[in-house]
């Protein structure tokens, strides 16, 4: 394996780790190992978003034929500045440490040991399947080579990069955002060849980081065992995604999960609230810069925040501060996405095909609603291709263990629930008004949309359900709904 591609993959991760250590040095204080893992799993999303921004900036405003020198110089300067800033800030570490509602790590028992072994086995099964599937079709499937890697090839070509948005290849969705192809192009530029390893390894990093971030986020609030169980189920969308290798849906799912986790951290941690919101905004911008569905995610955040402010009667000044920090993080990648859409991208096929008369007709067509509902139902019952269907399995598990969570997290859980539900509603409306053939649109995309949402949904699910060794209703500071007790009382 070329050492250059490994170094090119390590640099963005290092940048992400330095930024996290500089801005959130005390995150997960008292859980040292979890804190390190949290940074490792969140760093790639931050780093890859930043280096894609750097490469696009260089291509758009400097000499595309000198991209190798340009991006390596800027990235080296960035690493040096971050390292020096972190060194200078070390004298302040240890002062004003925030406190968190920490779960102890872990008290090992037979159940937690078995769950850990299952997670390790699932990880090895996944890696074997990834290796087999990736190298059987190293260029990926249709969207991979016809959209993302095709665009990456143009972006890596130097002065010919603008040909990647030509009308002659409009069939390849030249309006799609560029985070993924820019990262592939960056690896190809540094390596000086279009190696198939670049998109394969990039995809693997996003996949492992997605599951790892889910595990650590759940572990932080609900304990070791709950995090391990979440991780086992978190591999399900990755196995599903092997059916559409090297697509952008896993990176998008990663950013959806990461942004939601950071907003939840902000809702439950007053000392670093503004810092979490800045990161949440940045990762939401990364979702925008990854897929057009990022706009739906941003709308779901805005609408759910408005509803939350109404429910809790938040003051205008309090809401303005929240949006100020969030927009501060969002603005760089929001602006670059808007600039790309205006300056280079043609209109998208969905928006350009809409008209008011058609929208009115589709709104009143009952059969469209039924078609979408049936397709969604089938996807829910078949998702994951498990012996026991994935979503019914979650329902059964929830009924067995019950519901329990600290009352201090109720607001954050409600906010997260609203974001997930509103994104589902927006996706439903897109299908309802799509100018494409509805059955074709559903058949070619609904599994991917479910995969985008599932990791964020699993975060919500495991924040709400009780842990296996938890006694519901024993704590006055917790909300608890124990189904077995409810049944026994109703007899």
Brief summary:
The protein has 20 helices and 2 strands.
How would you sum up this structure, described in words?
With 491 residues, the protein is mostly helical. The protein has one domain. The chain contains 20 helices and two strands. The chain has a two-stranded antiparallel sheet. α18 (410-433) runs antiparallel to α19 (438-464). The chain is globular. It starts with a helix and ends with a helix.
- Tell me the overall shape: globular
| Secondary structure category | mainly alpha
| Cross-sheet strand order for the largest sheet | 1-2
Annotation field: number of helices: 20
Major beta sheet summary? 2 strands, antiparallel
Rg calculated over all Cα atoms:
23 Å
Helical proportion, percent range:
over 70%
Terminal Cα separation, in Å?
Answer: 66 Å
Model regions low in confidence, pLDDT < 50 over at least 5 residues: 98-104, 471-476, 486-491
Measured by DSSP, the beta-strand proportion falls in under 5%
The number of E-state strands comes to: 2
Q: How many structural domains can be distinguished in the coordinates?
A: 1
Average of the residue pLDDT scores: 87
- Give, in order, the helices and strands: HHHHHHHHHHHHHHHHHEHHEH
SSE map:
Blueprint: H1 3-23, H2 32-61, H3 67-89, H4 110-136, H5 142-155, H6 179-191, H7 197-222, H8 224-234, H9 236-241, H10 249-268, H11 273-290, H12 293-312, H13 316-343, H14 349-352, H15 356-363, H16 366-382, H17 390-401, E1 403-406, H18 410-433, H19 438-464, E2 478-481, H20 483-490
Antiparallel strand pairs: 1-2
Helix pairs in contact: 1-2, 1-3, 1-6, 2-3, 2-6, 2-7, 4-8, 5-6, 7-8, 7-10, 7-19, 8-19, 10-11, 10-18, 10-19, 11-12, 11-13, 12-18, 16-19, 18-19
């Amino acid at each position: 394996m070329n050492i250059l591609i490994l170094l090119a993959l390590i640099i963005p991760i290092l940048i992400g780790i330095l930024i996290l250590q500089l801005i959130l040095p005390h995150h997960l204080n008292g859980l040292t190992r979890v804190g390190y893992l949290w940074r490792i799993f969140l760093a790639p999303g931050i780093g890859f978003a930043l280096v894609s921004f750097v490469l696009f900036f260089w291509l758009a405003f400097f000499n595309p034929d000198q991209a190798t020198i340009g991006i390596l110089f800027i990235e080296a300067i960035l690493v040096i500045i971050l390292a020096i800033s972190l060194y200078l800030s070390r004298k302040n570490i240890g002062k004003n440490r925030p406190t968190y509602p920490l779960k102890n790590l872990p008290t090992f028992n037979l159940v937690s040991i078995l769950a850990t072994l299952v997670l390790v086995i699932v990880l090895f099964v996944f890696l074997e399947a990834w290796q087999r599937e990736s190298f059987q079709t190293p260029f990926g499937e249709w969207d991979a080579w016809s959209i993302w890697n095709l665009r990456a090839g143009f972006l890596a070509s130097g002065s010919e990069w603008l040909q990647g948005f030509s009308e002659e290849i409009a069939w390849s969705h030249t309006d799609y955002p560029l985070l993924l192809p820019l990262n592939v192009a960056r690896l190809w530029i540094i390596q000086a060849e279009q190696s198939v390893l670049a998109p394969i390894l990039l995809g693997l990093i996003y996949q492992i980081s997605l599951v790892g971030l889910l595990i650590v986020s759940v572990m932080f609030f609900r304990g070791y065992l709950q995090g391990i169980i979440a991780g086992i189920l978190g591999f399900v969308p990755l196995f599903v995604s092997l059916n559409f290798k090297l697509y952008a849906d896993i990176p998008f799912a990663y950013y959806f999960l990461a942004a939601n986790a950071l907003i939840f951290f902000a809702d439950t941690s007053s000392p670093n609230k503004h810092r979490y919101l800045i990161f949440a905004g940045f990762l939401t911008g990364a979702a925008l810069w990854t897929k057009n569905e990022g706009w739906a995610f941003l709308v779901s955040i805005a609408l759910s925040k408005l509803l939350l402010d109404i429910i809790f009667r938040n003051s205008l000044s309090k809401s303005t501060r929240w949006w100020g920090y969030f927009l501060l993080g969002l603005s760089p990648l929001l602006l670059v996405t808007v600039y790309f859409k205006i300056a280079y991208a043609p209109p998208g096929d969905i928006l350009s095909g809409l008209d008011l008369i058609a929208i009115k007709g589709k709104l009143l067509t009952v059969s469209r609603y039924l078609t979408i509902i049936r397709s969604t139902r089938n996807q829910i019952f078949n998702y994951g291709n498990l012996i026991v269907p994935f979503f019914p399995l979650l329902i059964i598990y929830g009924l067995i263990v019950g519901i329990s969570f600290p009352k201090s997290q109720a607001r954050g859980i409600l906010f997260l629930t609203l974001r997930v539900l509103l994104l589902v509603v927006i996706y439903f409306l897109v299908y309802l008004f799509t100018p494409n053939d509805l059955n074709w649109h559903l058949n070619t995309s609904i599994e991917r949309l479910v995969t985008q949402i599932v990791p964020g949904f699993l975060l919500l699910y495991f924040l709400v359900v009780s842990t296996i060794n938890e006694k519901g209703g024993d704590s006055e500071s917790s909300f608890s709904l124990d189904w077995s007790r409810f049944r026994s009382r109703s007899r």
